[in-house]
Write a structure and sequence with these properties.
By secondary structure, the chain is an alpha+beta fold. It folds into 2 domains: 2-28 and 105-168, no CATH class; 34-100. It is 55% helix and 22% strand. The strands form 2 sheets. Strands 1-5-6 form a 3-stranded antiparallel sheet. The chain has a 3-stranded antiparallel sheet with strand order 2-3-4. A hairpin with a 2-residue loop joins β3 (122-129) and β4 (132-136). α3 packs antiparallel against α4 (69-100).
């Protein structure tokens, strides 16, 4: 019966038996590193797109609102300052995202409280034990049962940990 639940977990969280064995020894497999690299690339691209959109909106607003030479000069100065600050932010954030790929594996054990919350964007799924809160998709949420104890191996990340593998403990 436990094997059935483990197969569900392996499908929902996209890991293999080899991944789980490696994670128990605090090792990230090549397969998981590739997954983390793809994740960090998507985060990087999202940062660049949002920064680009913000910069264009700021540029248009400041230039359209400028009426005199002094206002145009001030707008240009603000655009340069904004660009420098945005560049610094992107560099710091990219360094943080890049560092995530090589972070240490952490684990948390116990029974999890499941939480399903309706938001204006849809339904948010999460589990929590102590201070650690993990956000899941619906398939992952349904694969976790409050009747079992688990060990979850994850990589800490700025906003929410990245789950590598899950193991039933009872």
């Amino acid at each position: 019966m436990i094997q059935y639940f483990m197969n569900e977990l392996m499908t929902a969280f996209n890991f293999t038996e080899q991944d789980l064995l490696s994670n128990e020894n605090k090792i990230i497999t090549v397969r998981q590193k590739e997954r983390l690299v793809e994740y960090t690339k998507s985060r990087k691209n999202a940062l660049y797109v949002s920064a680009g959109i913000s910069a264009v909106i700021f540029l248009i607003y400041t230039l359209v609102s400028a009426k005199t030479f002094e206002q145009v000069f001030l707008s240009f100065t603000l655009i340069v300052c904004f660009s420098v600050l945005l560049g610094l932010y992107l560099a710091i954030e990219w360094k943080r995202i890049k560092k995530t790929s090589f972070s240490e594996i952490q684990e948390i054990q116990g029974r999890f409280n499941k939480n399903q919350t309706r938001t204006r964007y849809g339904i948010s799924y999460s589990i929590q034990i102590g201070k650690v809160k993990l956000y899941l998709d619906e398939l992952q949420f349904n694969a976790i049962s409050e009747n079992h104890q688990y060990t979850i191996y994850y990589i800490p990340f700025k906003y929410t940990p990245i789950i590598l593998s899950v193991q039933i403990r009872d």
